[in-house]
Amino acid sequence: MPTIVFANSKGGVGKSTSALVLAQVFAAQGANVTLLDADPNQPLASWADRDPEHVPANLRVVPSVTEETILDHIDTAAARDPFVIVDLEGTANVAVSYAIGRADLVLIPMRGSQLDADQGARVIKVINRQAQAYRRYIPYAVLFTCTTVLRGRDFKHIANTLRGAEIPVLRAEMVERAAFRAIMQIGGTIYDLEQSDVSNPEAAIENAEAVAAAVVEHLRVQQEQNA
């Protein structure tokens, strides 16, 4: 079953939020999901603690995942659940390398800025080293996050550079939405939000489901290419 790893050494790119939203969509669609919180700040464990009654029954959050336990957690969850999603620490460390080595897909959340692109390039180098160590191709893709309708010069330049370098980019983006910030603040899922909580939660759900569909499609294509 696919293990999806979120990795970026730069903070503020929406890494944990993207991992959580993806897990919520898969759970809402009926899949059992394990969400491994390997970030020392424990953002996902904190989310689960804020409103435990609204954590879906088929969404398991595992806190305090360390470099000593991460492989066991991934292997156990992958043998049990259709989806395993790992939120990694921002810095490159042993746990990051271990998780990338187990990944069926590494997602690199990135805002459309040069600084984010530079840090994303570091993650790609780690992926390539682990691919060499494990003697297998490790699929990865950039996930643009916190995007808006207006595209600045930086964003256009980064997008063109990625295309020119043939770096895969997920066809859907995580748009800047108040709903995504709200769930981290108050708990619950995007499906629990009402108009009194945030404006237009339906748009956030539509966006989240488009990202989840793009992830599944990317996984399917990779499987077909490696078959």
Automatic annotation (TrEMBL):
Top-level lineage group: Bacteria
Record-linked InterPro entries: DNA_Partitioning_ATPase (IPR050678), P-loop_NTPase (IPR027417), VirC1 (IPR009744)
Recorded hits in Pfam families, A to Z, give:
VirC1
Any idea what this protein is called?
Chromosome partitioning protein
